[in-house]
Amino acid sequence: MTHVTENACCPDLRINGIQSEKTFVRGTLFPVEVGMRTLKLSRTYTCGEMEFSSLPLYDTSGPWSDPSFVIDPEKGLPPLRDTWGFWNENSVEAKSESTSARTPRKAIDGGGITQMYFARKGIITPEMEYVAIRENQNLEEWISRFSRGGKKHTPITPEFVRAEIAAGRAIIPANINHPELEPMIIGRNFRVKINSNIGNSALGSSIDEEVEKAVWSCRWGADTVMDLSTGTNIHKTRQWILRNSPVPIGTVPIYQALEKVGGKAEALTWEIYRDTLIEQAEQGVDYFTIHAGILREHLPFAEKRLTGIVSRGGSIMAKWCKANKQENFLYTRFEDICRILQTYDIAVSLGDALRPGSILDANDEAQFGELKVLGELTKVAWKFDVQVMIEGPGHVPLHMIEENMQKQLEYCHEAPFYTLGPLVTDIAAGYDHINSAIGGTLIASYGCAMLCYVTPKEHLGLPDRNDVREGVIAHKVAAHAADLAKGSPVAWLRDELMSRARYAFAWEDQFNISLDPEKTRESHRSSMAASGRTDVNPDFCTMCGPDFCSMKKSKEATEQE
Amino acid sequence: MTHVTENACCPDLRINGIQSEKTFVRGTLFPVEVGMRTLKLSRTYTCGEMEFSSLPLYDTSGPWSDPSFVIDPEKGLPPLRDTWGFWNENSVEAKSESTSARTPRKAIDGGGITQMYFARKGIITPEMEYVAIRENQNLEEWISRFSRGGKKHTPITPEFVRAEIAAGRAIIPANINHPELEPMIIGRNFRVKINSNIGNSALGSSIDEEVEKAVWSCRWGADTVMDLSTGTNIHKTRQWILRNSPVPIGTVPIYQALEKVGGKAEALTWEIYRDTLIEQAEQGVDYFTIHAGILREHLPFAEKRLTGIVSRGGSIMAKWCKANKQENFLYTRFEDICRILQTYDIAVSLGDALRPGSILDANDEAQFGELKVLGELTKVAWKFDVQVMIEGPGHVPLHMIEENMQKQLEYCHEAPFYTLGPLVTDIAAGYDHINSAIGGTLIASYGCAMLCYVTPKEHLGLPDRNDVREGVIAHKVAAHAADLAKGSPVAWLRDELMSRARYAFAWEDQFNISLDPEKTRESHRSSMAASGRTDVNPDFCTMCGPDFCSMKKSKEATEQE
Question: What is the predicted ipTM?
Fold first, then answer.
């Protein structure tokens, strides 16, 4: 591996020391090449009569982990999707007057270009083929032959992807102005995804740091990144992030709109908001969180709460409604919003302005009242072929989580659910990533499609790089555990190989298969060093030492027969 | 607060900077004084018409957090239970020939002194009154008046404790040779408890470190501590730990027995094991893990597994059975073992030698076959009035956890369940404390009474002090979340106060009410410092900054009406 450049903004974040290579699987319908990270194993393991000396992994890091790629954040990533030849000048036009460096495109007819549009027409897009290949991880044979716990799966086909999108059960957030994107799919019949939030606030953080955190998030496994910047330089930060991001980028446009009116919520207007949507749409934002479901009728319920409104967007809109004595303009203008979204194929993430901020507020009238409105809005968006996902809580005690999933499916017509946690207690500050991973695993096992990560800094401050890593990995544990609970064959294979490596004392394989190879390798090394040993591959477990290793004894017992 | 001594072995681990004081609640039946840590709040909060300007917390740190206590690990803690006047020379004798410093005691008649014995006779002991007071946390009025989610609780009475112990549904592990103990109860109708494992192995760790880790564990909230030492100085380490431990200490006596036969499992004999039990009984160990349920008939099932036998004690006994072609002597001698246990009131923790070490092995014939035998042995122990808990897995995918709890209740006659995790995936090395907290929360919400912690070093090496802290707090989150799910009024009160403090921007109260006040305070301080602010109590949330604080806006919106 040659590391070509070091850059002050984005230090080389390529994955070092892991025995893996970047591999690509080609499509058959389109000239797509889906990148994966394929682990080389130190030996051949037999699982269910199949032999594995390597393991392809779902890879979110894009070109950043490709040693052949010359890193240059100023230039950005190559426009991958433009090489697929799907767009033509009859459907998409490049607009010359622009605020961004790249010439922005839009649908000529103002629509007819979204993934949902094509899906409903029965047309498979390159993005659909891409995500189908990606979800299978080049393990079609294994998926076909393997079943666990009575659950039988089949490889994902482009046609299955199309049907799920047509039904509104899944989305591919992919703005036509984000050609650097490696498409991914969010839906409960696919791998559970995680989102990482980044963004500066008035209290700190610089552009460079945010770009670095975005790349850093993908490198650890974030499937999407939300740029929640609220401070200065919002536009420029987002531009940098988009041009360097292989994953979908989401934003909450009301934050920037609020900056434009000097932070006075009551001064917001539809026109300012609309222009902000278009500005971000042209830059290539893949999904917008829009708090269109909070209505004036909900506010009295929110006021009875212990912690009121804890969503930033929600509190802005509540303030606007009260000050102007009018209904939420995001609701009244929702069709206009959809007309913009369909022009760029931006997915809408319907924000849960009234998510509970304390377990005492969970599952109350405010929360479920808004959820019903989100269900109505889902139908409106679908009229425009706009892809929809629904945001969810928040703080919810464990025994009340299932009801959230049930009601979401019922009210929102099976549109994908995307939750923040839920956090299962209010008192875990400093450890809220764990708190969130607990609730997240449970709701994802019930069908939640994407988990928004929470870092150890939640409720306390802005995350630094290490917090981002901790937050991402905690939610990778949650998402993967939910995939296992749902019987995903590719998830089960990874665990089986890990355990076979563990039983074989194949330490290098254990490190590489784990969710954080660098941390496991370093932990093991430092433990061995502390005990004065330097064996790299001891044939015993390092917790118990050579004489008390249960697996060693267990094997000896079997062998002595 | 004056810190009286610093000691090379046990540095002062008292809780610094937290606005709390050690308070004591007196019993009415016995002269017990139950220590709690009472938080002083910066203001008065109203919850359900009751006012709180302080909050008593369940406290596991014993005299270690009492500023009036002179710390001297060489001397150990005062013999608290000896001041309660329950024992008399008709029931307990002090034995003069001894291997330990303190003169050991035993039942004169070889029995008739266990908590279960008294409970069945209808007699309430000081230990029963102690734990009843402790569970209520001096919040009887709140418990009586408060209900959430339709679940009504009443304060715990000494009589309720007695009845639960008589029924075998709960245990108070309290060896008569551990008078330093502050009694605690393990059972599903009480607060969920957590255990912390410490112990040196041949690979590292010294006595001083282990004593320090024991005290450190209690200081962060461990309810019991298991000393799993396997290296040299087992006896001396245990002696130091016991004399300084306010929480019950558990051990796995087969480890020391194995040392006595030079590490050769096949050379173990009943006599060596028996003598080890007595040696540890006299020192004051409160509960023994005994792997009496693994039988020869189970071994073929274990051999079919992906990861065989991963319990250290289990692998030792499997090896012994095979080498000697005899049934497990812990099973055949189980009545003799119970005769020893009842003489000191040692609880038995029936070990799950065949717990799954990989999710593929979960809920298999080996595991559930052994669990049935543990149910039989429970009945045997109860014949001798020996208190019993049952150890559980291990690696179990999320959707298979509930079956573990159901089968345990069914097979083991409602004896308390004590699980290691479960870990919900095999690939989370480096983050297994999170992995374990996820499965642990779920099983505890179903009725598991105690969670054994797992640290970030699981599968990789021995935990250091920081790993112990991370492991303890992760499982405090899990246990507390399960208490909330079970509707515990004292658990709900803490969350409500936290959220009221959060909504009031009462930062000091938030730090103090959280599970790790030091970490939250430091995180907040460093975030503020990074942004150039030095306000100690800003009136906005430090994640979003002053202009985007949703709670601030939410309040303003309410107030502007």
Answer: 0.95
